[in-house]
Amino acid sequence: MSNEPTDTEPTHDEFTPDSDDVEYPSTLRITSLPAEQAQAAAVERAERWEEGEEVPHVVNFEDRARLRQLLTDRRMELLETVMDDPPESIRALADRLDRDVHDVHDDLYLLAEYDVVHFEEEGRAKKPYVPYDTVRIEVEFGLPRGEGSDPAVSA
């Protein structure tokens, strides 16, 4: 059930169009956690999924810099626009955002590599859409409670 890419590439080898019978969870979580923590979370989600609970789809980046490279302000705007009102085509989205169609195409396909954006083909047009109701971005840092220096000691 886990779909957690390495820092350098998405979990799948190439983009394949969605089929109508694929069901997606309501939430996509994009996280930045260390490998051990991400693996433990994936195991916990798999156990919950096996018990019949809906669990979010998770894309994890061990390196926050890689997450920031993917989710630039322009891509976040694009993502929000697609979620709010899915366009009829990539060109229609580019027009709506007043951006170059090739740049929008590249951004959409990059997001698709990470399973964030999907496409529905209608004739020659590809309609981008986000199959999740919510996209949550989570970045954690700091020491877990009980580790490191005493919080009562000031520097």
Question: What's the short story on this structure?
Answer:
The chain is an alpha/beta fold. It has helices at residues 35-50, 64-70, 73-84, 90-97, 101-113; strands at 27-32, 57-60, 118-122, 125-129, 134-139. It has a single domain (27-139), classed as Arc Repressor Mutant, subunit A, CATH 1.10.10.10.
- The amount of helix comes to 25-40%
Residue-averaged pLDDT: 79
- Major sheet characteristics: 3 strands, parallel
Which residue ranges are poorly predicted, with pLDDT under 50 across at least 5 consecutive positions?
1-20
How many DSSP-defined strands?
5
Number of helices: 5
In sequence order, what are the helices and strands, one letter per element? EHEHHHHEEE
The rounded Rg comes to 18 Å
How large a portion of the residues is in β-strands, by DSSP E?
A: 15-25%
Strand order of the largest sheet: 2-1-5
**Count of discrete structural domains:** 1
CATH superfamily: Winged helix-like DNA-binding domain superfamily/Winged helix DNA-binding domain
What structural class should be given to the helix and strand makeup? alpha/beta
For the record, give the distance between the C-alpha atoms at the N and C termini, rounded to a whole number: 44 Å
CATH class: Mainly Alpha
CATH architecture label? Orthogonal Bundle
